[in-house]
Each structure stands twice: as C-alpha cells, then as structure tokens.
Amino acid sequence: PSVRALVRPMLARLVHEQAPVDAKALEQALGALAVDDDDTRSVTLKLGRRLARFGADEVAATWWRFVAGIDAAAAVDDVLAVPAAELTPESLVSALRAIDQSDPRITPTQLRDLIRLVFTVVSPSEDIEHASGDFYSPGARDEAQRHRSSLVSELASRRGPEVYQALQALLATEEAATSQGWIANLAQQRAAEDADGTPSSVASAVA
C-alpha cells in the first residue's frame, strides 16, 4: 500500500479522538503524507483544526510548520478563522513563528486582518516595558509584541494602492487606536513613495 493509504486512516482517527498526540509521531506522519499526496491540505484540514485550536505546545507548532511550509497564505487564513477569544499570546506566537510574513502569496488584505487579530490578542495597553539596561529573558509576550510590529512594517514595505488602503483601514480600527500615529506615518510614506516611484524605505520605520 502507498504511504497515503497507511497514514490517512491514522490522521482521520486523530481528528475524532481526544487522546494526546505525540508531536514527533505527528511530524513523521505529516512528512510522509506531504511527499505522497497532492491534496495534503484538504486531507488534513480537520486534523489541524483539532490540534491547533489552539495550543502553544509542540503539537500545535508541528502543525503550523507543516501548513505554513505548504502554503503560507492558507496558514494565515487558518489563523484568522480562530476567534480571538480562543487565542493567547503564546498560542498565537506558535503560529506566527511558522509563517513567513514576507511570502508574496500573503495578500495585503490578509496582513491587515492578521494585524488586527494580533492587536486584539496582544494589546499595546498591556505591553511589557523593560527598563533600558535591565537583563531579562524574552518571553512569549515579548515575542508577540515583536511580531505585531514586524507585521505592520511588512505590510507598509509593500507597494500598490491596496497596501495604502489596508493601512488606512487599520487606522479606522479600535484595535490599533494606540498606534495610529505610527501607522498614519507609514501610510503617508507609502502614498508618497507610490506616487513618485522611489524604492521603498518604509520597512525601516519602527514603532
């Protein structure tokens, strides 16, 4: 029998069972399926919703590496499908680590919606501030804050009217209210650079 014939029934059982899943075994199974099956995402979608809704453990991380490695844009859609109330900074970071935010398949609209989600889960009003010179070990919350800023910078670094529109849409959201000055500046820079055709320097701007 093919690898697919052997692996798919096991994955189907995992969809319906609530027993703990071994991350290493899952990784091996998904790796075998990815090699053998042209329809991998549709075959394993329900499994992903079962495993990654929504953990911060190695099982969830394994799933996100697998999905994002196949299609980063589809991985973003999977993240966006999860209600913000079900997410924590830790579980969100598990997904964001796996997704290459610079992947051109991820559209400005997807970046906009992902940024809104991250602002909701990782509110700037609750940011951890570390005193200059203090030694500390960055945690998931610190990493989530960095992802929030880098996603906005990635969006602003792209070209085209849809990017400016996405930035303007962020300005109108309650979630990003505390960062309006920064985002407004990025939008103005994007509009100016699109108008005169100069190379993008927006990505170098920081919050």
Descriptive notes:
The chain has helices at residues 3-16, 23-36, 40-52, 58-70, 72-80, 89-96, 108-121, 140-157, 161-171, 180-196. By secondary structure, the protein is mainly α.
How are the SSEs placed, and which strands pair?
Elements: H1 3-16, H2 23-36, H3 40-52, H4 58-70, H5 72-80, H6 89-96, H7 108-121, H8 140-157, H9 161-171, H10 180-196
Helix pairs in contact: 1-2, 1-3, 2-4, 3-4, 4-5, 4-6, 5-7, 6-8, 7-8, 7-9, 8-10, 9-10
Major sheet characteristics: none
SSE pattern: HHHHHHHHHH
Question: How many whole angstroms does the radius of gyration measure?
Answer: 19 Å
Number of helices: 10
Low-confidence blocks of residues: none
Number of strands: 0
The overall pLDDT average reads: 78
Straight-line N-to-C gap: 55 Å
Coarse shape: globular
Tell me roughly what share of residues is in helical segments.
55-70%
Q: What attributes characterize this protein structure?
A:
10 helices; 207 residues; mainly alpha
Produce a short descriptive summary:
With 207 residues, the chain is an all-alpha fold. It is 63% helix and 0% strand.
